[in-house]
Write a structure and sequence with these properties.
With about 300 residues, the protein is of the alpha/beta class. It is built from 11 helices and 8 strands.
């Protein structure tokens, strides 16, 4: 089993990099909304650069035609996306009205852009081509009429899904082709690093994201491998939560605590066996469970064994 890594540096996702230019983001907006805007200067980027999730900056937001758009790419499904969207929109609106916040207390309506939230999903679990997630589904008391709502439109962008959208936005289709190419090499038995290298070379040869891949080969490889690590880490936390009956947040806290203990033991040059003993003592867990943690987090590069 490969060792899971928690990424501590704030890294962009490839999806975000592909649609960083205004003209490409505008093309995606047009494809989603059936519009035909051509002036990229009509688009105002509002992305909050300091908002980080799992060590990665993964949101893109912008305003055009009085619509505040939030685009998020995800490789794993979460019913909590509307809640995350609500918190993100709150920060966006706070920044938007900052110059005129005193008008909140006047009798004149303070008109604000209409929110629109799209989530682009390309995980390996089966999901519908399109589904709408509601914040109200998370409310404990469902009999009461909620005072607010937030909806996330999640689109499956795996290759073969949402074909009409893909044909309207070439970059989105090429991104799906690139990810599918990586997974194809992995399914054929390639290690992840080798699969990414082969996929990059194959896509360059076939004109798929060729300019981006040719100019930023090393950076793209790092981004993709980081995303795979993130996906593995999330799955690990979900498994821990299922096994122990804990919530994902609680499981994450335990995982981070385990990592800290192992890291300290290695800093003091304790052996693998002594670290195993420390885990069983400190966490009151079986040696088998401790061994499974070590298999995940033991840094063999620093091992004294």
């Amino acid at each position: 089993m490969s060792k899971l890594k928690v990424n501590k540096k704030h890294k962009d996702k490839l999806f975000r990099k592909i649609f960083r230019k205004k003209k490409d983001l505008l093309a995606l907006y047009n494809a989603l909304n059936g519009t035909a805007y051509t002036n990229e200067e009509d688009l105002e980027i509002t992305t909050l650069e300091d908002v980080v999730y799992m060590g990665m900056k993964n949101d893109t937001s912008f305003i055009i035609d009085h619509i505040m758009n939030l685009y998020e790419h995800q490789s794993s499904f979460s019913p909590n996306l509307p809640l995350r969207g609500l918190l993100y929109f709150a920060d966006l609106y706070r920044a938007h009205i900052e110059p005129i916040k005193r008008r909140l207390y006047t009798e004149t309506p303070l008109l604000i852009p209409t929110p629109q939230y799209f989530v682009f999903y390309n995980g390996t679990k089966d999901q519908p081509e399109r589904q709408i997630l509601h914040l109200s589904d998370l409310f404990i008391q469902k009999e009461k009429a909620p005072a607010l709502e937030c909806t996330a439109v999640m689109l499956n962008i795996n290759l073969g899904c949402n074909r009409e959208l893909m044909e309207k936005c070439s970059l989105l289709k090429q991104y799906a082709q690139f990810i599918a190419c990586i997974r194809d090499f992995i399914n054929k038995g390639c290690r992840r690093e080798d699969a990414v290298i082969k996929a990059v070379d194959t896509c360059i040869k076939n004109g798929i994201l060729s300019d981006l891949l040719r100019k930023n080969k090393a950076e793209v490889m790092n981004m993709i491998l980081t995303e795979f690590d993130e996906e593995d880490y999330r799955e690990f936390l979900r498994e821990e939560a299922r096994d122990s009956g804990l919530t994902e947040g609680r499981a994450q806290g335990i995982a981070e605590g385990v990592q800290a203990i192992i890291s300290i033991c290695q800093d003091f040059h304790l052996s693998y066996e002594d670290t195993l003993k420390k885990l069983t003592e400190k966490l009151s867990i079986s040696s088998e469970k401790a061994a499974s943690y070590l298999e995940q987090y033991w840094n063999h590069d620093e091992s004294t064994v």
